Amino acid sequence: MNTYKLTLQYKGTHYLGFQVQSEGKTIQGELNRALKTLSNGAEIKSIGSGRTDSGVHALGQVVRIEIPVAIPVESLARAINTHLPLDIRVTEAFSCSEHFHPIFSAKSKEYNYLFSTRPILSPFAQELVTTFPYDLDIAAMKQGAKYFIGKHDFINYQCTGTDVETTVREIFDCEIIHCNSNGHLSEIVEGYYLLRIVGNGFLKQMVRLIMGALWSLGRGKITQQDLINSLSLPQKSRLGATAPPQGLYLKEVHY
Amino acid sequence: MNTYKLTLQYKGTHYLGFQVQSEGKTIQGELNRALKTLSNGAEIKSIGSGRTDSGVHALGQVVRIEIPVAIPVESLARAINTHLPLDIRVTEAFSCSEHFHPIFSAKSKEYNYLFSTRPILSPFAQELVTTFPYDLDIAAMKQGAKYFIGKHDFINYQCTGTDVETTVREIFDCEIIHCNSNGHLSEIVEGYYLLRIVGNGFLKQMVRLIMGALWSLGRGKITQQDLINSLSLPQKSRLGATAPPQGLYLKEVHY
Question: Cα distance from B174 to chain A (closest Cα, Å)?
Fold first, then answer.
């Protein structure tokens, strides 16, 4: 078997998430189908760095594949792309050791969440950015984001009913950045905000729940102290909504 | 009747063009449906500044509407947007005279055509930018763009079989601009080129044929002289392909 490390970009809008399922269109399902075609129908194997939910995008998902045919790495990305839909692209391909594991070898992951406070979101940005049309105290949100940095029990920031060994995760960086677009793009996606979060691992829907809590803070519905408490004590109720998937991007996986 | 001037943005990907047709989804069809709902089913009327083809986008289409109900202009855009799909947005609404005509009152129109020479186009840019993955002589294209400026017979730059009174049009500005994206967007749409063209009117598919001719020039398949000839003599064959619709935007209509 030939083992390769791929970097994938995808627009998750029309997929049920990364991980292959028995029914429905998934990113991994499309990738497996492309690889099988390239391998003349022989058995192939793919492992991603983690699931992404339905509608969530990726700028740098990492996948290890095993295929029976040897394809020069220089032409592997192009060869796979030929058999993939246009909203999934392999951007890089490298040969890798069979000991490389996309999940267990990862040191950290970065997620980005894009949101705009404009009441009218451009038709071109609908699937790429979430609109949250409220008057937000961005300075308070910037302060609030800092509390997430460090090792915490994120039991209040996971999808209920998830089965994990521990809900403790370490966050290395968490910040709110104001971005300006330029040129033609400034009309496609005007000024927007980005939640940038880097950690050693993330629970299911954790980033979207952190985004939701920060929105509540920005609207004055919760205090900085509520946020601090949520990282040390189990809460009876959520601090905010689960932010919708279309603003979320798996940005990069670091090894 | 109450007469208003609307500015519309739309992503044309899932529509058969602006103009209402007996069958199939169109921008005007969706707008008329929204206006009819707002008018409790009464007769309404809409006139756009011009057709845009299937898959072509708009950043500033102008539409005059006549509706039997009087809605304060401050809330008109929001009211219409409530009844429109998310890939069509009214961005501005003004009261206007019944003598204002979106086509005949227009002094000039600006179109933009976005293209990238990257072999792998980001999944997020597929519907917004056209990829033309060739080594292009951009300097030659910049020079070539200038020949279109002025009053010319554009008989070689129209869709065959179109019935128009004259094929003479005046172009006020025509240039190729290199754009860089920044921030998060730089990964969604990396460096790209923009053909910016302003004129007093455009024949059917004229901008896409000009784009195609400039691509031919950039690849060295035609010369500057071929381009000059095409603006004074009828040609036996096209100078290039008809560029695909997904890179084209009706940018603005000037009155």
Answer: 16
